[in-house]
């Protein structure tokens, strides 16, 4: 028995993956074990204590036989009060929450494997349960059970079975480059921007100083599949991670908050490696989307599909906008490339475009040359009015140029070690001081250690690898430095098309680096391009449902597949109606559930209830509210109340109270701080709501044209379809796609060139002036007007 215990003690680092819950009259007992059930641990939860969470972890590590003996002994000890009863088997603790009465434990009772990364399984949550910790004696001391039940009902409307995923052994909340360059485990992983149950797990982590019993949930999208190319099976993984900061629904969360966090902030990563038992090469690339980082809002309207945009005249120095880009730099490094797709001639959007352009130029005056923001304002809608599919060619040209600046991640890895049930991470080969970004850092990031290029990494052929399969030739790693940040108004439909183009451009480089293709350029007609389009279309639909309540508008993808225009119009029509219904009738409930889950509203006796406030997370996280019979209809991106309404928490009269999962609020510490992002909820991020000064929706600020490097002055007209400081717009507007044009954009910088050399090496070609965008046959004018302006449902 001693030898068995010693063996179990050695195996202790293996993560717990399966749990059994037992209850007695006074305690809950949780037994946790690893995948092969060789190690068992015990957790005890006191049921008589109601004001605090009383948890005790037994330090002993048990074998399978000892676990069975212990259960039998506990049953005997509690025989006088009914013994110990088995409750349920489960697969991880999501966290603990308290409303007005007892604590509740949220657990995962069913899961489904959806993929794996280096033999580390990734699971989707498919069923959960909420266990009340109080026993019958302590429960009787609670009052106001009606409000308690209402809070439980609100929380349960956040469907954790949709798009929440986790891994026991792979840090799925972090990118592959960061995981290989800067491996971390345990506590620090929960401080990530992308762990949605950080608040719910905070008390148990503080109590036990351990993360052994909990799982870190990521909200977004995960899809993995194999495809064959050049005789190789390639594993392709697409991951979208939603930030938990400044979370919310479409019209209840817009723009930026005072700490630089934006609404609908999503990190997208695509990972590529050969689908073999122990791959020796891997590549990934990361891009970002997020709401325009200004203080702006829109009112929910039951009669107007596209309500006016209201731009607020606070923060004239764009401090919050500056904080946002400093945060991005801390996460991804330099350069930050802004790809803004909003309209130039549409009344609502053009005002926001001009203000965003002004903010970028003013901020660039404050940044050093190394930290300059690269930007491109390009009206995707205007340029797709002809043949929608041709816009993909232009987006690809932008993507290739952006990729020359940010590059992508590629490295060779040593085979992982460890047992089959608890494999260790593969080691990064040839990793002399690898470059990586600290998500919580806000300091300037040196790029002196960056080396490698797609050219240097892609010289190996299939034959070369066959000859050196046992000891592959070492190639220098490539590290992504910076990120492409794409936005439109909602950061859903147009943004997703642009992200697909960037993903396709990057995939060609990734496959080239892995030795699967001879050229890093993949055309839109390649079979793998159609496969990738399906991935991005699925991701776009998923993210759109989470934020806006309907699938994405995919008319460009549909047109690329050759769907009939009538089919495309019908699909767009019904998705617009579905989105409008969700925004007007469901989003208030959605927002309430998100605020409870993320801890931005914590119920307290004697304070206004959540349904009395009925607002965004700012007010829910503020303790200075008085009682009022009116409910808050809408909240600006900065937390100011626009108007008051008598609408109930269920939304509009007669609307179905179905709830969809959504995005997230903000709760981080100051960006300048080097502290962890544990973002204590008690340190309220939002000040009390004050009536904000707002400008007229037609407000058009004066443009500043400083720090424009490549763009002729004739192209700075706000009505132009584009404006950029990192590529030439004449070259971009040319609709040709010859291999000579592409080759300039495709070529990755030499390994020995600095970022400055790379930028100066991009020389605009001499092109004939053409009308910006691609001109072809137009969609019916009435339908275009309805889709873009939302003036009415019919003509």
Structure description:
- There is one protein chain.
- The protein has 795 residues and is of the alpha+beta class.
- Among the domains are: 14-216, no CATH class; 223-363 and 391-416 and 474-605, no CATH class.
- It contains 23 helices and 23 strands.
- Strands 6, 7, 8, 9, 10, 11, 12, 13, 16, 17, 18, 19, 20 and 23 form a 14-stranded mixed β-sheet that branches. A five-stranded antiparallel β-sheet has the order 4-3-2-1-5, with helices on both faces.
- A hairpin with a 6-residue loop joins strand 12 and strand 13 (281-289).
- Mean pLDDT is 73; it is low at 1-12, 431-469, 616-721, 736-779 and 786-795.
- Residues 446-472 are annotated as: Disordered.
Low-pLDDT ranges: 1-12, 431-469, 616-721, 736-779, 786-795
Distance from first to last alpha carbon: 82 Å
Percentage of residues in strands:
15-25%
Tally the helices: what do you get? Answer: 23
DSSP, total strands: 23
Structural class: alpha+beta
- Radius of gyration, CA atoms, in whole angstroms: 27 Å
Instruction: Quote the average pLDDT.
Output: 73
Q: Biggest sheet, in brief? A: 14 strands, mixed
């Amino acid at each position: 028995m001693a030898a068995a215990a010693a063996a179990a003690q050695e195996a202790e680092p293996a993560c717990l993956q399966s749990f059994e819950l037992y209850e007695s009259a006074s305690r809950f007992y949780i037994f946790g074990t690893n995948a092969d059930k060789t190690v068992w641990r015990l957790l005890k939860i006191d049921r008589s204590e109601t004001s605090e969470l009383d948890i005790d972890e037994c330090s002993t590590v048990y074998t399978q036989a000892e676990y069975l003996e212990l259960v039998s002994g506990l049953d005997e000890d509690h025989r006088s009060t009914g013994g110990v009863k088995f409750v349920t088997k489960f697969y991880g603790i999501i966290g603990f929450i308290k409303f007005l009465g007892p604590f509740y434990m949220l657990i995962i009772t069913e899961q489904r494997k959806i993929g794996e990364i280096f033999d580390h399984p990734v699971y989707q949550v498919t069923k959960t349960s909420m266990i009340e910790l109080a026993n019958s004696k302590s429960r009787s001391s609670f009052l106001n059970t009606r409000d308690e039940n209402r809070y439980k009902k609100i929380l349960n409307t956040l469907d954790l079975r949709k798009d929440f995923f986790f891994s026991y052994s792979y840090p799925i909340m972090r990118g592959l480059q960061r995981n290989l360059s800067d491996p971390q485990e345990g506590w620090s992983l929960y401080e990530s921007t992308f762990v949605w149950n950080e608040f719910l797990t905070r008390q148990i982590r503080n109590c036990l100083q351990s993360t052994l019993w909990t799982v870190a949930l990521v909200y977004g999208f995960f899809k993995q599949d194999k495809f064959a190319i050049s005789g190789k099976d390639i594993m392709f993984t697409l991951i979208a991670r939603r930030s938990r900061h400044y979370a919310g629904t479409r019209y209840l969360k817009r723009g930026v908050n005072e700490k630089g966090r934006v609404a609908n902030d999503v990190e997208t990563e695509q990972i590529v490696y050969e689908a073999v038992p122990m791959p020796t090469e891997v590549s990934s690339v990361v891009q970002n989307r997020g709401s325009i980082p200004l203080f702006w809002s829109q009112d929910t309207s039951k009669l107007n599909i596209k309500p006016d945009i209201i731009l607020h005249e606070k923060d004239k120095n764009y401090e919050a906008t500056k904080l946002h880009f400093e945060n991005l730099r801390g996460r991804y490094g330099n350069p930050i490339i802004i790809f803004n797709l909003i309209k130039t001639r549409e009344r609502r959007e053009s005002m926001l475009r001009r203000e965003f352009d002004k903010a970028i130029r003013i901020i660039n005056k404050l940044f050093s040359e190394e930290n300059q923001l690269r930007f491109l304002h390009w009206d995707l809608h205007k340029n797709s009015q002809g043949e929608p599919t041709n816009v993909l060619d232009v987006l690809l040209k932008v993507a290739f140029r952006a990729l020359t600046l940010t590059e992508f991640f590629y490295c060779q890895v040593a085979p992982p070690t460890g047992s089959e049930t608890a494999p260790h991470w593969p080691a990064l080969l040839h990793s002399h001081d690898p470059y990586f970004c600290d998500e919580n850092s806000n300091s300037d990031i040196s790029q002196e250690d960056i080396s490698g290029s797609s050219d240097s990494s892609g010289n190996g052929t299939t034959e070369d690898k066959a000859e050196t399969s046992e000891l592959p030739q070492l190639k220098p790693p490539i590290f992504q430095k910076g990120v492409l940040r794409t936005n439109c108004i909602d950061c859903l439909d147009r943004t997703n098309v642009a992200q697909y183009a960037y993903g396709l451009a990057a995939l060609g480089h990734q496959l080239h680096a892995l030795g699967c293709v001879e050229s890093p350029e993949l055309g839109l007609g390649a079979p793998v391009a159609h496969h990738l389009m399906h991935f991005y279309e699925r991701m776009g639909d998923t993210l759109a449902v989470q934020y806006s309540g309907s699938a994405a508008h995919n008319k460009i993808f549909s047109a690329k597949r050759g769907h009939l225009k009538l089919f495309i119009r019908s699909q767009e029509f019904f998705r617009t109606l579905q989105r409008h219904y969700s925004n007007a009738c469901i989003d208030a409930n959605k927002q309430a559930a998100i605020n409870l889950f993320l801890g931005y509203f914590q119920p307290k006796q004697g304070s206004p209830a959540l349904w009395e406030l009925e607002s965004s997370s700012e007010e829910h996280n503020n303790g200075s509210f008085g009682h009022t019979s009116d409910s808050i209809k809408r909240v600006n991106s900065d937390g100011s109340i626009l108007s008051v309404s008598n609408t109930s928490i269920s939304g509009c009269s007669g609307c179905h109270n179905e709830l969809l999962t959504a995005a997230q609020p903000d709760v981080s510490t100051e960006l300048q701080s080097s502290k962890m992002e544990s973002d204590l909820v008690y340190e309220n991020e939002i000040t009390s709501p004050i009536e904000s000064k707002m400008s007229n929706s037609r407000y058009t600020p004066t443009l500043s044209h400083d720090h424009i490097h490549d763009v002729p002055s004739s192209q700075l007209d706000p009505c132009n379809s584009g404006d950029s400081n990192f590529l030439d717009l004449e070259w971009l507007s040319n609709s040709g796609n010859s291999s000579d044009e592409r080759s300039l954009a495709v070529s990755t910088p030499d390994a020995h060139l600095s970022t400055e050399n790379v930028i100066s090496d991009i020389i605009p070609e001499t092109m004939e002036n053409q009308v910006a965008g691609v001109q072809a046959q137009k969609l019916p004018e009435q339908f275009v007007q309805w889709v873009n302006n939302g003036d009415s449902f019919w003509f």
